[in-house]
Amino acid sequence: MPASLTSPVDRFSPLLRRGLLGLAALTTAGIGVELAVERHWTQPAQLIAWGALALLLASIGLVSRGPTAGHVRIARVLAVVVILTSVIGVWQHIASNYDAGPLDFRYTNVWDGLPELSRWWLALSKSVGAAPPLAPAALAQAALAVLLATVGHPALDPVPARRSAPGFSFRARRRVRLLG
Asked: Over its length of 180 residues, how does the chain's per-residue pLDDT go in tens digits?
């Protein structure tokens, strides 16, 4: 690919990477404040969200401060763990709301007669229960921003860009090194 086509992308990549990491950091800070305000530590299972938050902060730190290829890979793994944790969190919140359905004064007498799909919809939409079903998804959003910030990261380049001649592909540079 000609250098003229890759130059604009290369020029804006650091800006986009910093923007994604900033978005992840801002989201993480907001989640931390929300968890603290909600006193999200009264049950052992609630501490999982705090652990995911710590992993998210670690992944942001690994990518934002002079990362190596190893740091970027570890940050990716941590971000995937946070995404999986958030999916489980969304499910736990919905299930908690579903379990609270018969206790809601509006549905006490009719809960058992409602179709199953309607009961799950009421739990998902937080019409019953107190757990915000989509709150854990904010963790996934921040982790996805970290993952996107690692796409095409220069630390993962097997041959640093400043050492390679313009217009040479990785294979061509490797052949030149092997022959020379």
From this structure: 444 445 555 777 888 889 999 999 999 999 999 999 999 899 898 899 999 999 999 999 999 987 889 999 999 999 999 999 999 999 999 999 999 999 989 999 999 999 999 999 999 999 999 999 988 999 999 999 999 999 888 888 876 555 444 554 555 555 545 555
The DSSP output letter for 45 is G
Cβ-based neighbour number of residue 143 at 10 Å: 29
pTM for this prediction: 0.78
Contacts of 170 (CB under 8 A, 6+ apart): 158, 159
Tokens of 15: 């800006």
Please provide the distance, in angstroms rounded to a whole number, between the alpha carbons at the two ends of the chain. Answer: 24
Give phi and psi for 101, each to the nearest 5.
-55, -50
Query: Could you tell me the residue ranges of all domains in the chain?
Result: 11-150
Helix, strand or coil, per DSSP, at residue 1: coil
Structure-derived torsion over alpha carbons of residues 77, 81, 84, 89, reported in degrees to the nearest 10? -160
Give the residue from 138, 151, 155, 156 showing the smallest Cα distance to 25. 138
